[in-house]
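REVIEWER CHECKLIST
Item 1: Sequence provided? yes
Item 2: Single chain? yes
Item 3: Sequence as submitted:
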Amino acid sequence: MLKKMERETNQWDTVIIGGGQSGLAVGYFLKKMNKQFIILEENNRIGDSWRMRWDSLKLFTPTQHDSLPGMPFPGSKGSFPRKDEMADYLEGYLKEYSLPVQLNSKVNHLSAKNNHYEIDASGNKLIAQKVVIATGTNPFPKIPALSSDISREIFQIHSSSYTNPDLLPPGDVLVVGAATSGIEIALEVSKIHRTFISGKPPFHIPDKAIKYGGELYWWIIKNIITIRTPIGKKVKKKIIRGGSPLIRVSSDDLKVAGVTSLPRVAGVENGYPKLEDGTIIKVKSIIWATGYRPDFSWIGMVDVTDETGWPVTDRGVSPVKKGLYFMGMPFQFGLTSGLVGGVGRDAAFIARHIKHN
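Item 4: Structure as written out by the authors:
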């Protein structure tokens, strides 16, 4: 049995790739089932993926909906945790349940070999019967190709590298992308720069519904907005096509802050962004809040992903390779799959499937 040989041969029943909230939640359930597993995390500390984001970032959901299974998130109801508080919570979660983790272990390649998987992690080879890929949805920044035609005199940065307004040179700023992150960054930048934002905001979930709606609101988005209901299927199409709904911020906030909303960027003319209506916008900085693109090229198996680059799964279970699972995917089962407090349900489903297969 692989379990008896783990110390000598680095063989495991299950290897979880990624030590964020999704990977930790799967680990929680596997440990309760007395399954043998290891979590591989590429960073120096659990929670570093949160610590490296912009300084003022807060979660989009209030404290009461930010817990992982078994451990309530500390804080007053209705408050929105800062990114470092979430990072510390994840680190504390790991310690609370003594989950096995191997830090500084970046997975470079995953391959299927007969009845097992081989994982190359920072030069070390691990063998597993089952693999859970919980690397999240933000592996690589997605920046439009037209950015290469922008004048070199304009400072450009993706939202993943943005930390605070002091990073930007003097002058007007264009934020490209009007989803939650783009709006939050635009609001912050507008305090010291004249700011423009380009793009059509997705639909907005009312603040009161999230902050004060209580368990009824959470129950609705958790149990009704899923891939199993007609309304859930419609919402999923909107999210996949246009991004997640606005939470905690809205286009009204932009108006109050004096941020000018513009049409989408359609091209470049004379080194400056050109909008869909033909307007040329001259700014000193551009922040590309244009999301991320998936990259599973390190998986050495065909047909695991579709033409969009996202994994083909049924609630995170790969129909292509037995024993291969994915966690933390957009709308994996429902709207809450993309929220910290919603990954527990998906993790429990994956853990049960691992146990019985």
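Item 5: Key structural point noted by reviewer: The longest helix spans residues 83-96.
Item 6: Recommendation: ____
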